[in-house]
Amino acid sequence: MTNWLPLLDQTHSPVYRKIADALAADIAAGRLPPGMQLPTHRDLAWRLGVTVGTVSRAYSEAERRGLIGGEVGRGTFVLPARRDWTSAVAIGEPDGFVDLSRNYAVTGSEAPLLGETVASLAARADFGLLLHYQPHAGRREDRAAGAEWLRRTTLPQADANHTLVTHGGQHAIAVILAALTRPGDAVAVEQLTYPGFKAAAQQAGLQLVGLPIDDAGLQPEALDAACRARTIRLLYVLPTLHNPTLATMPQERRQEIAAVCRQHDLTVIEDDVYGFLYDPPRQPIVALLPERGYYISSLSKACAPGLRIGYIHAPGGIDRIATAIGASIYMAQPLMAAVASRWMADGTVDRLAAEKRRLAAARQAIVQTVFGSPPSGAKLVSDPASLHCWLILPAGWRAEEFAAAARQRGVGITPAAAFAVGAAAPEAVRFCLGTPETGEQLGRAVRALAATLSENPSPYLSVV
Ligand SMILES: Cc1ncc(COP(=O)(O)O)c(C=O)c1O
What we know:
Strand content: 5-15%
Number of helices: 14
Structural class: alpha/beta
Distance between the termini: 30 Å
Number of strands: 17
Strand order of the largest sheet: 4-12-11-10-9-5-6
Helix content: 25-40%
Bound molecules: pyridoxal-5'-phosphate
Radius of gyration: 23 Å
């Protein structure tokens, strides 16, 4: 048995999570090879000076992430890495498990295109320049290509001087927060919001103020009241195909939100990574607030998340954001930024995005055939342009219990609590459509969800 002792970071996250994170890091770094036996709960608790319950929770979390497994009487062991890197897209696990908890666009023709594009870039005489350091905001041509794409798709005012290249939307969020906030600042968000933002805000030591939403998105009166009640300088908002509720703000609501932001001198971070999917595109809120709006877009949903290319359109100067990019990654990967620029220039991004829209609509149609008439009290929220659905559960079901019951049937989904800020989470779950390899596999998984829904919740599930 190993006498593994994790190195716990200094963040404010709970100790059990720090232990699970340290396990993940040591497994990834090869310090804990597959098959290695981990210390007992009691032994590790003693050596770390924490309770046995904390270690048990950490091990459960690591088990949930597929890192370790236990056998009663034998101990806890490091599991072999998942099949290979493609399993990160969580196509069904060997035992038939289908993970609908991750928000991927359906895989299309991007992989062979990437091969061709890299080969064509490699044939250029200046290819080696992509291995040099570049400005933190990205190469001028990549910023110009990104701005041109933004202009063409969602943000008419976009220009290269205000555009920065990032490693995707998540990185864009992190650098904007690093540049604009200090620990302890309050940031207004929808009371259900993208978990990646919650994580970045936690890292930055921010306080999130969750505000009520309705079918048209964030409620302007609630934003106004919150700004009157306390000092809030920033709003993070998802106005199009909101993750998870799918609400898309009508134009009037966008104008109302913009007016409240101006009145209270709020800076807006508008995360529009799904904006290009909506047809016809909605006017971003930042288009109404060019002097105070940071706009985030990304190619993860239009092309592929592994590209790790996103863009920030910043109001005023870009220096603070560029410095934050420099401090985090120095610069976005130039080869991938060059691939993105090429794809924008030759129309590949538009073709891939159209393909993603078609594939998303086809998957939504599969869900409709299964969930055409959900049981009374349940409500399925879907949109043909969306990569996920939001299922409001009928009375009697708790979201966590429904997710646990679905897991028993081999389907992974996300209960509302993962998205919740402040207010109690509704009894609802998100399930995503892009991860299964085939529509047939998705159909099976969605039928399993429908079957779960038609059951009565087990009275034993709540007993721990
Ligand atoms: C609302 C929202 N913002 C940002 C991201 C992160 O996107 P990226 O892959 O570009 O980092 C996601 C990913 O699902 C998202 O749902």
